[in-house]
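SEQUENCE AND FOLD
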Amino acid sequence: MAIRVLIADDSISIRELLRWQLERLGYEVVGEAENATQVVSLFRSLKPDVVTLDLVMPNEDEMDALTAFRLMKKEAPRVPILVLSAVPFNKTRELFMEEGAFEYVVKPFGRNLKDALRKLERAFPELKPQGLLGRVRKSH
């Protein structure tokens, strides 16, 4: 069974890129959100295995990415949230990591995203993607 991922990013091109990369590696993208309010709503209805969360998204209904992050962690503390952001500041990274982010990946992500996904597989062996990473591991 593929890992079910919810993508949250206000940029359609980043969402498309993430979807392409994740599906190529065997993950199943179950939903996409373009703001924090949408990601919380989809998180509650879709119950994904993993969430990717952009930090800089439009605020709707007084909800920003940090508020959404905290709500998701409170409701499902075991669901890993990969923070993907163009914000390279150590204080921001430290805040999210201290609050339970699985990983903080700075855009453009490239190899850093693959490293984060490998870390995810090691930390949650019950979540096995069905694509490239899984096949590479089995062949060694």
